[in-house]
Specification:
There is one protein chain. The protein has 2 domains: 6-136, Rossmann fold (3-Layer(aba) Sandwich); 139-296, L-2-Hydroxyisocaproate Dehydrogenase, Chain A, domain 2, CATH 3.90.110. The chain has 9 helices and 13 strands. It has helices spanning 6-18, 32-47, 82-103, 116-127, 139-154, 193-204, 206-214, 220-234, 279-296, and strands at 23-26, 53-56, 67-70, 108-111, 134-136, 161-162, 165-166, 174-175, 181-182, 185-186, 239-248, 254-265, 268-272. Strands 3-4-5 form a 3-stranded parallel beta sheet, with helices on both faces. A 3-stranded antiparallel beta sheet has the order 6-9-10, with helices on one face.
């Protein structure tokens, strides 16, 4: 787990609690990964898990990792343009990826750093690995937010909500209402069009809503989403989950990382699924792709 901030540390504990893998928490800040790792290890006797969590400022301890999750990067501040954020985090993610390639050449690489879609391109280009082994976490988080809002609106258990959010990880993401159900009942049968549109819009602005409340980005849901992806890979669960994958003609989109449903197993992305979208949803996905290409165009590589 590269990056011992809130998201990285939350994901590290979630994975440790699964009881199937040891975790190395890496960060450039001295004392931070060591302290958080020690705290997580001390929680083990209370929560009942065995794996060890090791904190490090280097990559020696990560050698031979099966999965590497990159959460490292700087958050966007008020005086920073989008292009500034892309440039700064391009350097960070590129540097981390080179370390991953050197120490864990057979790993699966999961990107969480923002801007997510662009950083996936950085990791793919720097590593030279196939698209099956380099992908990003966004759709699970965005879908989780959509599901939460649907549960709040309908009063139904969130366990019975099935939804999917496609596209870029930004304001142009595409919650697929046509594929959304509650206990098998289409959402459109349960909620008015106006309320559905309000939930879609809240989902698109979900990250910003939390930033306004907390003054910083979310970490519980992102950390849990990253852990779910690791579960599916390490345990070869073959879950069908919305992830940011490099599209090569799927959905009519070429050479662009976008959020789509994929099957995740031991080899990484084993299959990409194309949903039957309505005309409106297809148009929204194309607009999302255009927005992602604009961000990616800022990359130097």
């Amino acid at each position: 787990m590269v990056g011992a901030g809130n998201v990285g540390a939350t994901a590290a504990q979630e994975i440790a609690r699964r009881d199937y893998a040891d975790v190395v928490l890496v960060d450039i800040k001295e004392g931070l990964p060591q302290g958080k790792a020690l705290d997580i290890d001390q929680a083990a006797s209370v929560l009942g898990y065995e794996p060890s969590v090791v904190g490090s400022n280097g990559y020696g301890e990560t050698k031979g990792s099966d999965v590497v999750v990159i959460t490292a990067g700087v958050p966007r501040t008020g005086d920073m343009s989008r292009d500034d954020l892309v440039s700064v985090n391009e350097g960070i993610v590129g540097s981390v990826t080179r370390e991953v390639v050197e120490h864990s050449p057979d790993a699966i690489l999961i990107i969480v750093s923002n801007p997510l879609d662009a950083m996936c391109h950085v990791a793919k280009n720097v590593s030279g690995w196939p698209r099956e082994r380099v992908f990003g976490m966004a759709g699970i988080l965005d879908t989780a937010r959509f599901c939460a809002f649907i549960s709040m609106e309908t009063g139904a258990s969130v366990k019975d909500v099935t939804a999917m959010v496609l596209g870029g990880h930004g304001d142009q993401m595409v919650p697929v209402v046509s594929a959304t159900t509650v206990g098998g009942v289409p959402l459109t049968k349960l909620v008015s069009a106006d309320k559905i549109e309000a939930m879609v819009e809240r989902t698109r602005k979900g990250g910003g809503e939390i930033v306004k409340l907390l003054g910083t980005s979310a970490w519980y849901a992102p950390g849990a989403a990253a852990a779910q992806m690791v579960d599916s890979v390490v345990l070869d669960q073959k879950r069908v989950l919305p992830c940011t994958a490099l599209l090569q003609s799927e959905y009519g989109i070429d050479d662009l990382y976008m959020g789509v449903p994929v099957k995740l197993g031991a080899g990484g992305i084993e299959e990409i699924f194309e949903l039957d979208l309505t005309g409106e949803e297809r148009t929204a996905l194309d607009e999302s792709a255009a927005a992602v290409r604009e961000v990616v165009s800022v990359l130097s590589g």
